[in-house]
Amino acid sequence: MLTSKAAFLQKAQSTKLVAFDVDGVFTSGNLYLSGAKEEALGFYIHDGLGIKLLHRIGMEVAIISSRAPESVKARMTYLGIKHLYLGQADKRIAFNALLTKLDLTPEQVAYVGDDLPDIPPIRAAGLGIAVANAHPAVVQQADWQTIKSGGQGAVREVCDLFLEAQGKLDTVLAEYL
Q1: CA distances from residue 127 to 13, 77, 83, 106, 142 in whole angstroms, order as listed
Q2: Which helix (H) or strand (E) holds 25?
Q3: Which residues of the chain have pLDDT under 50?
Q4: Which end of the chain is more exposed for a tag (fewer CB within 10 A), N or C?
Q5: pLDDT value at position 68?
């Protein structure tokens, strides 16, 4: 685990891609099922703007999820995320495919997760991030842990940290002041 925000920001300067899990990161991890076996997921609205701001500064964003509900595909497509790896039983395969596709090294990638299937990409990434409510084994393997929980602003927190690390946070904020 990195010992300070300054250490995180320094390491994050070379990040070109941030990859996220969905359930428990973009969402609270709660799954709501209706009688018709339809599911509903809740997404935190501030997270969406964070993703759009990362795109604005030229960072690549990817999703690697073991599940593939239509609601996730719809939300991520709306946010302009081009690299969707849904239904991934082994997230290492998708992680390595992203490295090849984007010609990146693991050190140029950050991965954000919350549960045991996220440990391999967290360990492989140059910067592994666990959300506040992540499983303790995930936290133990991560370089950083968010203050906010999944589905409650953790994604936006990560986005803002990368905007700051890339020296773009003040510029983005100035557009709204």
Answers
A1: 11, 25, 19, 9, 8
A2: none
A3: none
A4: C
A5: 84
CA distance 20 to 113: 6
Instruction: Give residue limits of the domains in the chain.
Output: 25-60+74-83+90-105+115-138+146-177
CATH topology of domain 25-60+74-83+90-105+115-138+146-177: Rossmann fold (3.40.50)
Q: From residue 66, how far is each of 50, 52, 72, 80, 88 by CA, in Å?
A: 23, 23, 11, 20, 4
User: Tens digit of pLDDT for each residue in 49-83?
Assistant: 999 999 999 999 999 999 988 889 999 999 999 99
Q: Cβ neighbours of residue 12 under 8 Å, at least 6 residues apart?
A: 110, 127, 161, 162, 165, 166
pTM over 0.85: yes
